[in-house]
Design goal:
alpha/beta, Collagenase (Catalytic Domain), 152 residues, 4 strands, four-stranded mixed beta sheet, single chain
């Protein structure tokens, strides 16, 4: 039996309250993995957690004492690409504020997180343009509207 290249770990049960969401998140991670040219043999994990867990991770790894929507933890391992963690409450709040569906916003965050794990960033305007363009293309293939269209 072969191991799945993408593992979802659901810590916060509210994530399960959205029918059909988990396969969509896995598909988003797979699409981002392919677009970023991360080999399938390099497994990755998506942690679906609550705000408290992301607050702790954000504090411990970034020195920021608040929850955030998504965090990425790249690994330097030939067989393991790393982890992406999402906060349910922050994701829900942002989706409502932006008038997006929860599923579309969560898929965007997964794509964003996997691209970070693959080395993409948005620290400079140039890097942001490259990363956002790739995110938009990946999401379009998944049937998700451009998340940056109305954000500017």
């Amino acid at each position: 039996m072969t191991e799945e290249p993408i593992t979802l770990v659901v810590e916060e049960s509210a994530w399960r309250g959205h029918p059909g969401l988990l396969p969509k998140l896995k598909a988003a991670a797979e699409a981002a993995r392919r677009a970023a040219k991360l080999p399938a043999k390099r497994h990755l994990t998506i942690l679906l957690a609550d705000n408290a867990r992301l607050k702790t991770l954000n504090h411990d790894f970034r020195g920021k004492n608040k929850p955030t929507n998504v965090l990425s933890f790249p690994a330097k391992d030939a067989a393991y690409a790393g982890d992406v963690a999402l906060a349910y409450g922050v994701t829900k709040k942002e989706a409502l504020a932006a008038r997006k569906t929860f599923a579309d916003h969560a898929r965007h965050l997964v794509v964003h997180g996997v691209l970070h794990m693959a080395g993409y960033d948005h620290l400079t305007d140039r890097d942001a343009k490259v990363m956002e363009s790739l995110e938009t293309k990946i999401l379009a293939r998944l049937g998700v509207a451009n998340p940056y269209r109305d954000a500017r």
